[in-house]
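Forwarding the complex inputs:
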Amino acid sequence: MPNNQFKKGELYSFITGKASTAIGRRLQKNFKQAEVEITIEQWSVLYHLWKVDGMSQQQLCDATFRDKPSITRLVDNLEKLKLVKRNASKEDRRKNLIVLTPEGKELEEHCMAIANTTLNEALQGVTNGQVEIAKEVLQMVYDNLAP
Amino acid sequence: MPNNQFKKGELYSFITGKASTAIGRRLQKNFKQAEVEITIEQWSVLYHLWKVDGMSQQQLCDATFRDKPSITRLVDNLEKLKLVKRNASKEDRRKNLIVLTPEGKELEEHCMAIANTTLNEALQGVTNGQVEIAKEVLQMVYDNLAP
DNA sequence: TTTGTTTAGTTGCATAAACAACTATATGCC
DNA sequence: GGCATATAGTTGTTTATGCAACTAAACAAA
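Prediction (whole assembly, four chains):
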């Protein structure tokens, strides 16, 4: 018997990731309730810019696991919301450096608090040990499938 | 110190579910390589119909964690591909019963084999015990956030 | 310098998701 | 029966994804 065989019924839920879907929806709902008018996809870009401002679009692709067109359009929409700005790089004129506007920076504290709250809601009753193993498994899955 | 506190850097990956994204992409790629011309979203609907043919759209919503417009359009596209058909219910004329066509039924074996292969690729090196705990955690997360 | 290749980003197209507003049928209550 | 309400499904709009094709700049080799 193979080591990693799921039963059919379990396979589906695991693959479609209903848990991460549920977290995403809850996070979106919590943003909305707090009148933070951004999508979770936009949030995922801002999240990395809050850590390192001025990343290139390619760096944002790698950080967020998205392809270039997705980042192009997410940055388009974040620019429309006046949360980021595209600055042409002086060293390499192909590159856009994406920098936070003051409005974009301002969101950080509030958004991260909402994200932490959401995660605490999600993980009620789950022990640290279980979370550690779950994270390990997810990381291994990701590494197994990385291109 | 709260029990369930993620470190910032981990929070992001957990919420955005990069592992389940990666599985979805690999499954899509494997379908394409096998010349199965369906999306993973269409697959997720077919998957339930293979178990119970003739479900209503509302039942498909519940089974796939999607809202009604999403299922309306997925069924639209599956009908265009001639994999399913909408049959008006005789007991309740509001309901459409979604039934597989012969072409739709034919796909089952091949698709499920691809899905199982994909899952085995994803879970290489992960022990049964780890998988069990990961599933438990994901289920608890889902239950914590269920509406 | 020119030619070919790689890298960064954009655009077009099809599919899908979330939300709100809508139609039509069913049901419960008086 | 008649009216309010709930349920099943559709449509419109905005946002996002995945893929392919594209432009422009950088780089490397001759």
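The longest strand of chain A covers residues 84-88.
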